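Give me structure tokens for this 38-residue protein.
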Amino acid sequence: MDENNSIQLFEDRKIRTAWDEEKEEWYFSVQDVVAVLS
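Here you go.
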């Protein structure tokens, strides 16, 4: 996994993320977030 992509843990579930250095924003996988919330 490169330095701009990582996996965050939320209540023992993995959420894929990506960092955009130009915009200085995190992006999260919608599929992973929905799975955590359901």
